[in-house]
Amino acid sequence: MGEWVVPLVLLAAVMHAGWNSLLKGGGDRLVGITMLNVWCAVAGLFLLPFAGPLPPAAWPYLAASLGFHTAYQVFLVRTYRLGDLSQVYPVARGAAPPLVALTGLLLGTDMLRPAEGLAVLLIAAGIAALALRGGAGLRTDPRPVLMALATASFIAGYTTVDGLGARAGGDSVSYTAWLFILNAPPMVALAWARRGAAGLWQAMRAGWRCDLVGGAMALTGYGIAIWAMTHAPIALVAALRETSVIFALLIAKLWLKEPVGRWRAGSALLVLAGIATLRLA
């Protein structure tokens, strides 16, 4: 794994927590995530002149990724209606790395060393503990956690496909640009059907600044992750990226004023132990 992979993916994690917090703290989340995709598509168009052509070998992966991304975003909006950011975000993100690792093992694309597998498990365990609050949240109302787990399956799907697609294409910039360009139209069509032209335009005018900032963070953060997956095992990048839950926890406490107790503070140490294990692996 390259020297710059870990710090850059951690930076991507900060960006990921940032745009999810903007989405959770905003008004109409369906319109918010749709406009975030629109701004990402605009940025992708500007990237194209600086990227090479995407080889045909990468297009099937890109097509599969678009399906996973659309499903993920629809489920994410629904999940945020049911639960707090500090509960559902860690479940969705924490369940994904083990699923990615298992997929890589089954496909034979990425074989982890024992220390690397331990790092993935420590990070995932810490993230899960952050979310479950000792199981109280699950006993009170299981729906947010179950929806978050469904969201995690789509996260694992697009993460695996995008890593393999960027490798097949040999150009992470080109793959990222086309992914975000093509990801916007399905979400625009869905938001148009649900909110109508007038409702979509009104919500867009009200929140375009936050959507622009969120789009910039989403494109840059995931672009870094796609690049990293061409230099390191996909499961390791996924696990590092999901440390965004620590940053989301801080945002939930300081900005959204959600309750964060000692249980989650202790759970964060597991995540940090996983990062340390990865650095020493």
Explain briefly what this protein structure is:
The chain is mainly α. The protein contains twelve helices and no strands.
What would you say this structure looks like, in words?
- With 281 residues, this protein is mainly alpha-helical.
- It has one domain.
- It is 83% helix and 0% strand.
- The protein has 12 helices and no strands.
- It has helices spanning 5-25, 29-47, 59-82, 85-94, 96-107, 114-132, 136-140, 143-169, 172-229, 234-241, 244-254, 262-280.
- 53% of the residues are buried.
- The model has no long low-confidence stretch (mean pLDDT 81).
Distance between the termini: 10 Å
**Which overall shape is indicated by the principal axes computed on the Cα atoms?**
globular
Order of helices and strands: HHHHHHHHHHHH
- Point out poorly predicted stretches: none
Number of helices: 12
Topology:
Layout: H1 5-25, H2 29-47, H3 59-82, H4 85-94, H5 96-107, H6 114-132, H7 136-140, H8 143-169, H9 172-229, H10 234-241, H11 244-254, H12 262-280
